[in-house]
Amino acid sequence: MNINWLPSEETELLVNVEDLPNFHIAQDTEENLTQGTPIEHARKFIIELQNALISNKTDELLFLYDRKFNLLCDAQFKTTMWPTVEEIEEDESIEIQINTFFLYNELTFRHAYARLQNNLTPEVRINTYKNYINFFNQLADTKEDIALPNQWIWDMLDEFLYQFQNFCQFRIKVKDENDSSYQYYLENIDDIWTFDSVLNILTTFVEKSKILQAGKNALAESQTVPNILFYCGHYSLVSLCRLHTLVCDYSAALKAVEPIDFKKLHIYTKSFPCLITLFYYAGFSYLMQKKYKESVKLIEFMLSFYLKYKQFYSKSYQFETMNKLAEKSLYVLSLGLVFYPTAIDENISAALREKYERTEKLSKYDLATFTEMFNYGSPKLMVAVKDQEHFKSFGFDKNYTELLNQQKELLLSEFQKIQQLNNLSGVLRLYSSIKLPKLAKVMKMSEDQLKELIDLYQARNNAPTSSSPFETTIVKKLVDSIPKMEIIIEKDNIKIKEALTKPNFAKIFSRNMQKIEEIVKDLEKI
Question: How many other C-beta atoms can be found within 10 angstroms of the C-beta atom of residue 23?
């Protein structure tokens, strides 16, 4: 069964109802998880996990992953690690298979990062890295299919990057070569997190999944029955975008998602957090590359989709994570709208009005508010440990906080110029033609300064686009909805032509029908 927001719209996404957690996550277990010992619950859980893997029961795996594991964490392991596989196998009746081993470790190490952050040991960081590398290499080399739910596949890659980021942040803080943790990593240098090793895993997934057309920067036709490697390949494109954004390489971030086209976005809606991540990091990268209208429209598109479907994720533990990323996206959208003011979806405007005080100050070009909203909205940008040699001296001789602040300063330098551009846009919309000297007087600047400002305005509005599927089938479609204003200078006369977009009757009709349905439901309650 498919839900389609607006069937006649070229920029609306199809969503399969079975992919929404509220429709297929089983009800919570009725067993009392507070009784019994931790090791007993761990043994029972790993046996259930193994049986579900052997039986290829995706729905059961989703319940174990999304619900029962987290319930057990609350009931039995709030402040402690889960037992290791070796401890569980002390019961000789239990024999753990290799995939069960990897996936159980993936969950329990993730638990350590989420709940025991202050007590993470170098050994845990090494072991979780080795677990990911070994499991991912096995998936890429054997091409074995595992009936994992899409949410788990995406979350593994998402957590993989998070733990790498966590390691880099830890390394920056080490300033003493005699630090015991630093010395431990030196002794285990072959098993430390590095940018090169993380990049290699993601690019290997893309290559071995064969999701790209041979010799082309475009997605291949989907397999008849997609397997886990297929989804690892697709989700690695999004992960590469995130990875490059985190290290401030925005060109590489956007290059990573170039093959994605609109017709294949349904692959990414199978894990809603993956879709949100794609548009958030692409939108932020466009913002940092001064492509403001592209940033605004990408974030707006994602938030419109998110606001419509978020209630169907309320049963998932991912719900809070999605809400946080959507909240950060609102801040990025607010910044983008200052650089490129344009009309946006009514529901998103309402969400922005809830933050009225901040957005109002931002619209008046308040620098303190800009800094605050950039800090809230931007990803946790980082300087990465590139390779093993880099690890040895990384952080000892530089203040990396200053390097990260440079990103904010780059955007801030543009923010300080933008008021004149927005004022120019507002004035030009009042005229179909105006004399250059008159406009210069209105703008309170010389004619030469005005010509430079008009050139800058034209450059902002007509940033070049690539011929990639992502830009032609997604970005261009979204940006084309913005009214175009053409400025022609003939000697000292300026002509302004504004091409208005046609009213979107399908969207208006759909919105009104939704309102009518809400009114009818309210009347039925009376």
Answer: 12
Strand positions, DSSP E, 405-522: 433-435, 484-490, 493-499
pLDDT for residue 8: 35
Write down the pLDDT at residue 481.
Answer: 81
pLDDT > 50? residue 413: yes
Identify each DSSP E strand in 172-211 by its residue range: none
Q: What is the 3-state secondary structure (H, E, C) of 387-433?
A: CHHHHHHCCCCCCHHHHHHHHHHHHHHHHCCHHHHHHHHHHHCCCCE
CA 106/CA 94 separation, integer angstroms = 19
| Residue 511 pLDDT grade (very low, low, confident, very high; cuts 50, 70, 90) | low
Which amino acid makes up residue 267?
I
> Which are the contacts of 214, defined by CB distance < 8 A and separation ≥ 6?
220
Q: What is the pLDDT of residues 191-218, one digit of tens each?
A: 999 999 999 999 999 999 999 988 788 8
pLDDT mean across residues, the chain: 86
**Pick from 335, 236, 346: which is nearest to 284 by CA?**
335
**CB-based contacts of 291-294 (< 8 A; 24+ apart in sequence):** 291/463, 292/336, 292/339, 292/340, 292/460, 293/340, 293/342, 293/461, 293/463, 293/479, 293/482, 294/463, 294/475, 294/478, 294/479
Residue 373 CA to residue 361 CA, distance in Å, equals 11
Q: Which residues contact 149 (CB under 8 A, 6 or more apart)?
A: 58, 59, 61, 62, 65, 66
Indicate the SS3 state at residue 210.
coil
Reference 290, options 254, 328, 243, 325; nearest CA is: 254
Residue 116 and residue 79 in contact, taking contact as beta carbons nearer than 8 Å: yes
Give me the residues paired with residue 2 across strands.
16
**What angle do the packed helices 150-173 and 195-208 form, to 10 degrees?**
160
pLDDT, residue 6, reads 35
The DSSP secondary-structure symbol of 212 reads B
Q: Give the helix ranges, DSSP H, for 1-97.
A: 21-24, 38-55, 58-63, 69-76, 85-88
Place of tokens 């298979």: 97
Dmax over CA atoms of the chain, in Å, equals: 91
- pTM, rounded to two decimals: 0.89
